[in-house]
User: Fold this.
Amino acid sequence: MQSLPVFLLLTGRPVILTGEGEAADAKRRLLERAGAIIVGEEDAAARIAIVSDGDGAVVARLRARGVLVNATDRPALCDFTLPAIVDRDPVLIAIGTGGASAGLAKALRQRLEAMLPARLGALAEALFGARMAIRARWADAGERRRAIDAGLAPGGIIDPLQEDAAGAVPSWLAGTGDHRGSRLESIRLLSGDPDDLTLRAARLLGEADRVYHPAHVPAAILDRARADAVRIVADGPPDAPGEGLSLWLYPG
Assistant:
């Protein structure tokens, strides 16, 4: 990973936009959707700039002032890049290629646009509105996380790829909260390349509470697990893996 994806809150904040033409118009529309106040190069309060025509001299002047710059079609001059965006407000999905190919980012965005329901944002808002009820329903943080994972899993009652998921939140809260209890799943690794993970393996890694693995399992594989999942080096599957979902990774 060569850059850190972040979501900037720009509402009411000045952002410099320079250049003219279609590229500038497109960037202007994007900034306006984000609520930014669009200003010129001379604005001393702005800390972010988009140089829509890639003018190197403008980039140099702005960088000398400590302004973070995006220069259209000139990735070597960029402090940040602008991703392709799937907007299901408040859910935002950003797809970036580090400036390598805007066409690839666009193609991936179009695929995701077709997959994700229009009411995905409504599910996020429903879960936000129910956060106190969720805490009351599952007071233990681990149990709460597992219940949420089970509800959002493929085929779950609030599966985000279902159009009516937002409306199912009350039923999910009123249900048994069955999240399959504590269990150990084994994953046979086809190789050390994370691209060779099966869909099932990738999903389990994203849900696991702890991951048991031999020392030689590559970091690229382990990085597919949740950031807060415990990694435990082991020679074999554990006899007592612990609460929640545990995984045993082993070479094929």
Observations:
- The first helix runs from residue 22 to 33.
- DSSP finds nine helices and ten strands in the chain.
